[in-house]
């Protein structure tokens, strides 16, 4: 029995030609068997090097063809590329190939499409069995992600989840940087992480999403100096978030949770999403002001001479990149060194401690610059 193995890039026309020649031989010869290995183009080089090292061969092109000397597996005898295989078939089986170039290209394109679809179906089938949580992060190259990802993919955040599939999206971003971030994330070996995918376009964006975090930033200090450039970027951001809203509406799960964070225009971004996501409950969209809240806590902690972590329940209202208010009505402080003290779990109202309202308000407002601190009317 003659058993041959044909391996090649999915889009290689010579692999397609060798494949059809082998099919013809298998139909006409009862003892002629073939096994095909179709490899995606971006995985071919790595696979070829590993196979040649394993078998002690030297070959650098697609396809790679060898004859197995055992019924199943085992070390094989290298035939070579398509020309070598064609010569072998002519010599031993008196058969040749006269496939035209157009047919070669057509078959190779079909091979690639079939292989890609097979991998997608296989992945979808696998994902359906593990019941994983799909988390999408847009603006994945934001420096925040290096801190966010290890904390996000934890049992504390998702206590009832057994597996998480992380999708990292950076529209028109550097694919190599995304691959680097993917590698770093995988190297963390987080227990809940099932696998990571990277995307630089919106072809699959937010598909089956359970949680979406939008960290895209469109404006920086240079934009403030160049009004025209800043306006162009703002318009681009608006169009992008309108498209995001439509994609979330059609691709994400209906109970998706969407969190918008960043340094600029977060309220505008969130309103654009809600406007375009007609079928998704608007309560599923949340805008985060955590950065400003932490800033307020740090300033209050300095004033009260405690740690920032000892100041709790400071609320920020308004537009993060416009007019906003730090609401201290519910704010409380722990471990304050004042006339009234208690155990570590004992807290006091920040407003009661800041008894000298004029001095305190002036100091805090000047520290916040554009931030207004909100005191209840009963306080004055």
Automatic annotation (TrEMBL):
Entry GO MF terms: malate dehydrogenase activity; oxidoreductase activity, acting on the CH-OH group of donors, NAD or NADP as acceptor
Alphabetically ordered keywords of this record: Oxidoreductase
Name used for this protein in its record: Malate dehydrogenase 1B isoform X2
Coiled-coil zones: none
Organism (species): Betta splendens (Siamese fighting fish)
GO biological process, one term: malate metabolic process
UniProt xrefs under InterPro entries: Lactate_DH/Glyco_Ohase_4_C, Malate_DH_type2, NAD(P)-bd_dom_sf
Superkingdom, taxonomy of origin: Eukaryota
Family the entry assigns: Belongs to the LDH/MDH superfamily. MDH type 2 family.
Keyword Zinc: no
């Amino acid at each position: 029995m003659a058993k041959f193995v044909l391996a090649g890039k999915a889009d290689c026309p010579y692999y397609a030609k060798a494949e059809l020649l082998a099919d013809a031989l298998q139909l006409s010869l009862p003892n002629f068997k073939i096994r095909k290995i179709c490899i995606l183009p971006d995985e071919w080089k790595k696979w070829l090097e590993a196979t040649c090292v394993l078998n002690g061969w030297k070959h650098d092109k697609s396809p790679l063809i060898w004859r197995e000397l055992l019924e199943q597996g085992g070390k094989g005898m290298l035939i070579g590329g398509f020309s070598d295989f064609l010569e072998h078939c002519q010599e031993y089986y008196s058969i040749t190939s006269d496939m035209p170039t157009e047919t070669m290209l057509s078959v190779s394109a079909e091979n690639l499409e079939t292989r890609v679809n097979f991998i997608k179906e296989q992945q979808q089938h696998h994902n359906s069995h593990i019941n994983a949580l799909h988390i999408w992060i847009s603006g994945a190259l934001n420096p925040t992600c290096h801190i966010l990802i290890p904390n996000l993919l934890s049992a504390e955040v998702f206590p009832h989840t057994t597996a998480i599939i992380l999708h990292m999206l950076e529209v028109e971003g550097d694919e190599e940087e995304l691959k680097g971030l993917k590698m770093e994330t995988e190297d963390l070996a987080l227990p809940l992480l099932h696998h990571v995918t990277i995307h630089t376009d919106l072809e699959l964006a937010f598909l089956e999403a359970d949680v979406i975090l939008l960290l895209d930033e469109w404006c920086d200090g240079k934009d403030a100096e160049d009004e025209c450039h800043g306006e162009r970027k703002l318009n681009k951001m608006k169009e992008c978030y309108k498209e995001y809203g439509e994609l979330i509406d059609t691709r994400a799960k209906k109970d998706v949770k969407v969190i918008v964070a960043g340094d600029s225009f977060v309220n505008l971004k969130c309103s654009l999403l809600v406007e375009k996501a007609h079928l998704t409950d608007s309560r599923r969209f949340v805008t985060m002001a955590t950065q400003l809240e932490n800033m307020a806590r740090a300033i209050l902690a300095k004033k009260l001479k405690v740690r920032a972590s000892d100041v709790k329940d400071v609320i920020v209202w308004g537009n993060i990149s416009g007019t906003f208010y730090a609401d201290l009505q519910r704010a409380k402080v722990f471990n304050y060194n004042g006339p009234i003290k208690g155990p570590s779990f004992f807290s006091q109202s920040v407003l009661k401690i800041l008894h000298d309202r004029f001095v305190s308000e002036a100091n805090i407002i000047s520290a916040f610059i554009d931030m207004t601190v909100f005191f209840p009317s009963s306080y004055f």
